[in-house]
Amino acid sequence: MASAHIRINGTGTRHNQELRRFVDNLRSVRNDAQRLKDVFDQAALGGDWPALALLLDVTETEAETIYNLLGSVKGELEASFISQMLGRLG
């Protein structure tokens, strides 16, 4: 069976370099989102918005909103096309 991996080395044309940078940045953003979500999950354990608010230096309402937004964004970053792109071009 042929490999599904597409090698983008970032040393070819300008567009090759831009694509490599995009894929690397996308992977970094996805990793950052996971790391933040892990920390926020521990801080807000059981809906402890005051603890998360203290960690983020925001109000409790803002902390809950940030937590929910990050969870939604993280979900989008785990979507199949993003995972497929990172898997095949990563």
How would you describe this protein?
By secondary structure, the chain is an all-alpha fold. It has a domain at about 30-90. It has helices at about 15-45, 50-55, 60-75, 80-90. The longest helix has 30 residues, at about 15-45. The radius of gyration is 17 Å and the shape is elongated.
Major beta sheet summary: none
Low-pLDDT residue intervals, each spanning 5 or more residues: none
Shape call: elongated
Strand content: under 5%
Give the tally of β-strands. Answer: 0
Structural class based on helices, strands and sheet pairing: mainly alpha
- Count helical runs: 4
Task: Show the helix and strand layout.
Elements: H1 14-43, H2 49-56, H3 60-77, H4 80-89
